[in-house]
């Protein structure tokens, strides 16, 4: 074994950085910031993808808020069950006297 795994990783990282620098030298820095091939279509498709992504984010945010509300409702029901039915009292003393 010549070297080891650390030298192999270093060699691979150097080859990746050399490939990126060759691309920058050939086409400039701007092509690195363009969208990937399925999403770089001109015209109507780019705004449609942006609107679809925005709608997906809004729907998932609503789903997260709904899940938080159901969690809080379940915790309230558990507290009421323990306090009213079983008579368990919950007291919190964050700065308890010693």
Short summary:
The protein is 65% helix and 0% strand.
Task: Write up this protein.
The protein has 98 residues and is mainly α. The protein folds into 2 domains: 1-34; 39-87. It is 65% helix and 0% strand. The chain has helices at residues 5-27, 45-85. It is elongated, with a radius of gyration of 28 Å.
Q: How many DSSP-defined strands?
A: 0
Q: Tell me the radius of gyration.
A: 28 Å
**What are the secondary-structure elements, in order, as H or E?**
HH
Q: Which structural class matches the secondary elements?
A: mainly alpha
Shape field: elongated
Q: Count of helices?
A: 2
* Quaternary organization: single chain
Percent in helix? 55-70%
List keywords for this structure.
2 helices; 98 residues; single chain; mainly alpha; 2 domains
Strand and helix map with partners:
Blueprint (H helix, E strand, L loop, with lengths): L4 H23 L17 H41 L13
């Amino acid at each position: 074994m010549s070297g080891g795994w650390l030298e192999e990783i270093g060699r691979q990282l150097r080859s990746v950085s050399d490939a990126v620098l060759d691309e920058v030298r050939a086409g400039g820095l701007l092509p690195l910031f363009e969208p990937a091939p399925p999403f770089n279509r001109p015209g109507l498709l780019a705004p449609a993808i942006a609107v679809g992504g925005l709608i997906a984010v809004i729907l998932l945010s609503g789903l997260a808020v709904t899940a938080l509300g159901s969690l809080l409702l379940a915790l309230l029901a558990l507290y009421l069950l323990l306090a009213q039915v079983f008579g368990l009292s919950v007291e919190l003393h964050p700065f308890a006297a010693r």
